């Protein structure tokens, strides 16, 4: 759990890369861009346009090697030599959220969800439902990149994202903090509609193919299912997240 002791820049920013996403972020009055990093190889009208937009928005532009930009973007092909760090005001370390005087009551924990579209749609749904947090581990889950932002229709910038190293680490921290840990599984007899929930509960959403991993599964308090009278084996994980999120809305009303 060593990486929880310091606040990583990844716990404060969403990094977008590519000329168009960076220009869109700079032009959006609702976003605060911390900085733009431009590859020292980026020249010509495209680079000039980004520099003008950054200056107009009062955002500093740093130069770095093309290799450094690729490393920071985490993408080898589509960064186009530019990235921007966008401040996500509700994103913070899970450890900080759990240490709050009023820790989050209802959170989702993503475990092995590797499709950016699913992560983005889950962030959008959970934010719409007013959930207190979506735990997005740095390892084992799709990186929070422009594909996730696009799938969330921009809501990712406003989502209550909680960061930690891994899903197992999150499960351990939640258990220690007194949360009930509930995992979605198709064969569970208890359903999301009738499970008794404690004051604080976390819901594990497993990966697209393997479901909830064994490391997290062994810490689960109870498995719950979404009843499906029709002849379908399972729902897409983002659809399952929507059912769960709005069942929590219904309960809170």
TrEMBL record:
Pfam family, one: SpoU_methylase
BP term (GO), one: methylation
UniProt keyword terms in alphabetical order: Methyltransferase, Transferase
Gene Ontology MF terms in the entry: methyltransferase activity
Domain RNA 2-O ribose methyltransferase substrate binding, first and last residues per copy: 15-92
Family: Belongs to the class IV-like SAM-binding methyltransferase superfamily. RNA methyltransferase TrmH family.
Record protein name field: RNA methyltransferase
């Amino acid at each position: 759990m060593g990486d929880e002791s310091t606040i990583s820049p990844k716990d404060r920013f969403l990094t977008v890369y590519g000329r168009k996403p960076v220009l869109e972020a700079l032009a959006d009055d609702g976003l605060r861009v911390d900085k733009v990093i431009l590859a020292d190889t980026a020249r010509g009208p495209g680079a000039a346009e980004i520099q003008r937009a950054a200056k107009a928005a009062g955002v500093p532009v740093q130069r770095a090697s093309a290799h450094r930009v690729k490393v920071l973007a985490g993408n080898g092909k589509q960064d186009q030599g530019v990235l921007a760090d966008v401040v996500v005001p509700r994103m913070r370390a899970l450890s900080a959220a759990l240490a709050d005087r009023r820790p989050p009551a209802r959170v989702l924990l993503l475990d092995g969800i590797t499709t950016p579209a699913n992560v983005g749609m889950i962030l959008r749904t959970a934010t719409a439902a007013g959930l207190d947090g979506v735990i997005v581990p740095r390892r084992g889950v799709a990186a929070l990149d422009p594909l996730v932002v696009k799938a969330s229709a921009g809501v990712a910038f406003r989502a209550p994202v909680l960061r930690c190293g891994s899903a197992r680490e999150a499960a351990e921290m939640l258990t220690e903090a007194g949360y009930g840990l509930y995992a979605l599984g198709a064969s569970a007899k208890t359903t999301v509609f009738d499970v008794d929930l404690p004051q604080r509960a976390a819901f594990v959403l497993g990966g697209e193919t393997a479901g909830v991993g064994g490391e997290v599964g062994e810490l689960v308090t109870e498995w719950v299912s979404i009843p499906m009278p029709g002849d379908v084996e399972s729902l897409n994980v983002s659809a399952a997240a929507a059912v769960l999120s709005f069942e929590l809305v219904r309960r809170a009303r």
